[in-house]
Amino acid sequence: MNSKKSTLIILFLLTLLGGLLRFYKLTENPVSLNPDEVSFAYSAYSVLKTGKDEYGKFLPITFKSVGDYKNPVPVYSLVLSEAVFGLNDFGERFPFAFFGTLAIPVLFFLAFQLTKNKNIAFLAAGMLVISPWHVFYSRYGNDPPMGMVVASLGLLFFLKMIEKRGIYTILAAFFLVLSMYSYYSERVFIPLLFLLLITLFFGNLKKHLKSTIVFLTASAIFVSLLVLRSFFGPDLARGNMVFIAKDVDYLRYIALDHVSPGLNLGGIHIEETFALLTLVVGRYLNYLQPDFLFFTGLNMTHEGSLGLGVLYLFDLPLLILGILELIKGKFPNRGLNTKYQVPLIFGWIALSFIPAALTNNEHNAGRTIQALPMVLLISAIGFTKFIEFIRKMKQVYIKTAAVLFCGLFVLISLIHALITYSVHFPVDRSEFSMKGNKEAVEYILANKEKYQEVVFDPFRGVDAPAIYSLPGYYILFYAKYDPALYQKELIENEKKGISGFGQYRIRKIYWPNDRYAKDTLFVGSPWSLPLKDIKEEEILKRIYLSNGQLALLVVNPKPPK
Asked: For 58, which DSSP code?
């Protein structure tokens, strides 16, 4: 068997295994579609059926949602998926799992392009197959892995462009910019990456000026619409909403007058700006904490219990070995010149954490997943060094003991990850996926003819009614509600100040008044439908989380005649 054929077979098997981990019981774990997923899916369904989003915009570049805006690449990917599989749970999750699986061969070719070493490329791709960080985000409708794989393709084609130019010039520009249409973090990461690439490869780009001009011109054309939307359109609202200056802790700090009037230069409050920069640096460093990296970063279990970090604990020694090899410059590199390779790998990782540090949420692992390809490449380099170290051991019994110990450590880590994901995560975080909304909507749809109106309270939560669950989108999704009709009703109801469509109303339930409603079905948490004030015969259905806690009630009040 020739080398090329064996390479393709191994890569195919790795991709197949990665696909199995990402597609197996895809609709069952996570246990339910979350609000982002049904929102993405119905936007795509509206485009599929009418050519417009649910707000009536024709083939938009930015998709308006409830208090947010969605990127076009995930939505248009869903249009294709729903055209094939229909509007259902699998159709919603398919493109994200597909992109997650596609990332495996992409990382192989990227790692090989950087090192020209198949062993390292295979190791990096193999680590991505079992990466808890990547498997987790690939199994539900979430756009971070989509942005990651598109940006990785962009870098791959850029490196190809440096070598061969030609069609790779357009492909590099297209995919680097396309990643910015895939996930919001890329809109910060990619411009910074452009600066890094131009700095590192300035000599080559200057030497092949014609190709460079084509690359920059194509990039400018592809990004032009995005720039207009980002600075003069609705995307600006998204940026303002998530920017760290809107962070609750920062606003509280300012409100409590911890910052004195101090020095003011050109309208810039120096002390306030310094406080903001301090917060950004602190957030950045928080993503490098061992607890986040190796124990709890994915937030898959209850607080205080051992869960999963974004990396396995056995990645730590491999990363250390890989970093030392790259820093020492002794790694037998046959790819890029070391003066390009080392700053590109470390620069990619360093830039990946900046978007997350600029946003107003603590430890959002999805916003930092862009770092994963280079992190795994470093681990793969460390792995080759470890294998070399084992091979040099002369005592057979020591070598055997070392291999068995390390193998057992890896096996225990993988078993722990499997148990965490398949046993603890569905129970501990079922509310994270809004479990119960689907069951409630299915009951509503089966019994809607019996009632003139259905009221679904959007606020829920076992500990407090603090979760806004977008029940309207769940109804639209599972009812396959006619998008053309919804677009008309949305405009009419907004004028009337009504939140809802058809016979469905999305509003808070106020039981002291609502208990007297006739021919009305109510769905809400025990916070809005207090059990002590409801007769047993009025409760038509109780809906529970996976851990047995009561999540929602379906109630039909029986007011006295």
From this structure: B
d(CA 420, CA 432): 15
Where helices occur in 116-167 by DSSP H, the ranges are 118-130, 132-138, 144-164
pLDDT in tens, 268-291: 555 666 767 777 788 888 899 999
d(CA 427, CA 429): 6
301-329 b/e (C-beta count within 10 Å ≥ 16 → b): beeeeebbbbbbbbbeebbebbbebbeee
Distance CA 106, CA 351 (A): 20
Nearest 5°: CA angle at 486, between 485 and 492?
95
State residue 265's pLDDT score: 46
Beta-strand pair 453-456/520-524: parallel
pLDDT at 304: 67
- Which secondary-structure segment (H or E) carries 500? strand 500-501
| Closest to 93 (Cα-Cα) out of 179, 17, 18, 22 | 22
Contacts of 236 (CB under 8 A, 6+ apart): 230
In whole angstroms, what is the distance from residue 276 CA to residue 250 CA? Answer: 7
Q: Is pLDDT at 216 greater than 50 in this prediction?
A: yes
Would you say 310 and 365 are in contact if contact means Cβ atoms under 8 Å apart? yes
What percent helix, strand, coil does the chain show, rounded to 5? 65, 10, 30
- What pTM, to 2 d.p., does this model score? 0.91
How far, in Å, are 133, 204, 205, 239, 420 from residue 220 at the CA level?
33, 20, 16, 21, 45
Phi, psi of 302, rounded to the nearest 5 degrees: -60, 150
Structure-token match 């050519």, residue found: 51
Summarised one tens digit per residue, pLDDT across range 354-384 is: 998 887 766 788 999 999 999 999 999 999 9
Residue 555 pairs in a beta bridge with: 522, 539
Residue in the structure block whose two tokens are 């004030």: 533
Distant-in-sequence contacts of 86-90, Cβ < 8 A, 24+ apart: 87/41, 87/42, 87/45, 87/477, 87/480, 89/27, 89/33, 90/26, 90/27
Measured between alpha carbons, how far is 157 from 242 in angstroms, rounded to an integer?
A: 31
Distance CA 322, CA 115 (A): 13
Report which residue type is found at 293: L
Whole-Å CA distances, 70 to 28, 327, 477: 25, 40, 17
The closest alpha carbon to 280, from 178, 377, 224, 362, belongs to: 362
Buried b / exposed e along 58-85 (16+ C-beta atoms within 10 A): eebebbbbeebbbbbbbbbbbbebbeee
d(CA 155, CA 152): 5
* DSSP-assigned beta bridge partners for residue 455: 505, 522
Give residue-wise pLDDT tens across range 194-212: 999 999 999 999 999 999 9
| Burial classification of residue 421, based on how many CB atoms lie within 10 Å of its CB (0-12 exposed, 13-18 middle, 19 or more buried) | buried
Rounded CA separation 130/21 (Å)? 8
CA distance 487 to 476: 12
Q: Which two tokens stand for residue 212?
A: 């460079």
